[in-house]
Every structure is written in structure tokens, then in C-alpha cells.
Amino acid sequence: MSELSDKVVMITGASRGIGEAAAREFAAQGARLALLARSGDRIAELADEIGETALAIRCDVARQDQVDAALARVLDRFGGLDVLIGNAGVIAPIGRIEDTDPAAWGQLIDVNLKGVYHGMRAAIPVMTRAGGGSILTISSGAAHGPMEGWSAYCASKAGAAMLTRAAHLENAQSGLRVMGLSPGTVATQMQRDIKASGINPVSKLDWQDHIPADWPARALAWMCTKAADDCLGQELSLRDETLRRRIGLIA
Ligand code: NJP
Predict the structure, then answer these.
(1) Which domain range does residue 171 map to?
(2) Is the Cβ–Cβ distance between 64 and 116 less than 8 Å?
(3) Atom number, ligand 1, closest to the C-alpha of residue 216
(4) Measured in angstroms, how far is the CA atom of residue 199 from the centroid of ligand 1?
């Protein structure tokens, strides 16, 4: 039996890409799932495909009230929460600082940074009361190095990385396992949007340069097991070959 068997896992941004792949991986390992995204039809289809153990909840992570309501439904259905994966994210607006629309710039921060905060704020008291849980944030190389045209994205990911460290500092002693995962470039819709923008070196990468979404999905599942207990509080990079080997992604 997998260590993840029956664990209750809430994934934001589960309608496609890394979040969808993570849903399939956790489901394969026997977890119970809450799939959150704005595309209600898409997550409903995915939940149907997975079966009784998956619950689709339409939710905009930019809204604390919607995240709180989503968690209430999870607790009602499954009776607890073991894992929160703060994965929902957007790349737009792409453009030089002076050319971006302030409202669109702020909306990205609402999703990529405040969305992670909203999830943590809702989940931490529940996990603390239960004596433990894992909170994983999807980070990015963009958290640590600027890229032309991505000021909002880089600032949001840097903020989310620091927020994740703060959550570890405040909650490790209560048994919460808090970590970040920087996946490298992954073959998802986000990379299609980046390619279409043509603005910086990432947009020039070949499609074969990207890893498949099931790699970060498998990494996330591994991070929820005891095997990753020496990584608590850290941001793991899937570009790291030693990590890839530990997870079993490469020989
Ligand atoms: O992107 P994509 P990825 N509320 O566009 C959801 C990071 N990352 O899987 O709401 C709730 O296929 C959206 O659902 P919907 C990246 O920054 C990626 O690549 O229905 N959900 C969809 O399910 C992000 O944090 C790469 O539109 C919202 C999902 O987010 C994470 O990986 C590299 C939402 C986005 O799916 C997943 O990105 C890297 C909202 N307001 C980090 N807004 C990479 N792909 O190369 C969006 O370093 N979503």
C-alpha cells in the first residue's frame, strides 16, 4: 500500500498541466482528491474519470472566500486535509514593465502570490489541529532570476517562495511539512503561451527541451512521503539530477 493511500490532497490549478498530472499521480497512489480550478467543466470531467475518490470544486484562488469555501467542502466530504498543493498560476501579463496594464499586473499577483497565501491561510489551522500535513508550493526559476517581460511573474514567484519559507518557519514545530518545487520548464499550456510571446530566451526553447508534466507530478507525490523528510523547508529543483534520481525519474 502506498504512503499516500487515503490521504486527502487538495490541488489548485487541477484543470490541466502540472495540476492535472498531479491529480492523476496522487489518484494512482490511492489518495482522495479535491480538484480546484476556475474551469468547472474540465475538473468535473477529470473527477468523473478518477471516480468516487475525487471531488471537483470550482474555485478562483485569487479569492480568499472561495478558497475557504472549497476547503469547507473538502472537510465535509473527506473529514480532513493532509496535503495542499499550491499550483494554480498564470504567466500573463507578459511585457516590459512600462507597457503592462496595472490591473492585469495586480491580478497576476492575486493569483500567483495571494492565491498561495489564501490556500495556506485556510489549511494551516486545519492541519495544525490534526497534528500534521504537507503544504507544497510550485515555485520557479523565475523566483530567483529576472526574465525580460516577466516582471509580474518573477515578482509573484519570488514572493511565493518567501511565503513558503515563512510558512515553514511558523509551522514546522507543529508538524507541518512545507516545501517548494521548482519544476524547470514543463510541456504545458503555460509554455505554449510563453512561446507565442517570443519575448525572452524561454520562448525560444524547443518543445523537446521541456519535461513532461508527470515528472513534477511524481516529484510532488514523493515530497509527501517520509523519503523527503530531509528536504523540509527547502525549495527543490527538478533540474537537479540527484533529485531526479532520488525520485526515480532517471536511472
Ligand atoms: O500551467 P497551465 P502549468 N484560480 O497554464 C489554474 C508553475 N510553473 O501547469 O482556472 C484557480 O497548464 C488553471 O486553471 P483554470 C506555474 O507558474 C510552470 O505549467 O481552469 N486556478 C490551470 O489549471 C504554475 O504555478 C512551469 O484556468 C487557476 C493552472 O492554473 C504551475 O507551475 C515552469 C487560476 C495552470 O495550468 C502550473 O503551471 C515553472 C485561478 N485564478 C513553474 N488561474 C512550466 N510550465 O514550464 C489559473 O518553473 N489557474
Answers:
(1) 8-184+213-246
(2) no
(3) 32
(4) 19
List, for residues 25-56, the tens digit of each pLDDT value: 999 999 999 999 999 999 999 999 999 999 99
Query: If you measure from the C-alpha of residue 80 to the centroid of ligand 1, how many angstroms do you get, rounded to a whole number?
Result: 25
Q: CB under 8 Å, gap of 24 or more: what pairs does 143-147 form?
A: 143/182, 143/235, 147/200, 147/201, 147/202
Top mutation candidate among 24, 33, 38, 214 for ligand 1, by most atoms within 8 Å of CB: 38
**pLDDT tens digits, one per residue of 126-174:** 999 999 999 999 999 999 999 999 999 999 999 999 999 999 999 999 9
State whether residue 238 is helix, strand or coil.
coil
φ, ψ (nearest 5 deg) of residue 180: -115, 155
Average pLDDT over residues 225-233: 98
Residue identifier of the C-alpha nearest atom 33 of ligand 1: 185
- The answer to whether residue 251 is domain-embedded is no
Residue 190, in any domain of the structure: no
Give residue for cell 495586480: 106
From the CB of 134, is ligand 1 less than 6 Å away? no
CATH number at residue 57: 3.40.50.720
**Distance in angstroms (rounded) separating the CA atoms of residues 111 and 75:** 23
Ligand 1 centre to CA of 241 (Å) is: 24
Q: With a 6 A CB cut-off, is 43 part of the ligand 1 pocket?
A: no
Query: Is the pLDDT confidence value at 1 over 90?
Result: no
Q: Is residue 201 part of a domain?
A: no
Work out how many domains the chain is built from and give that number: 1
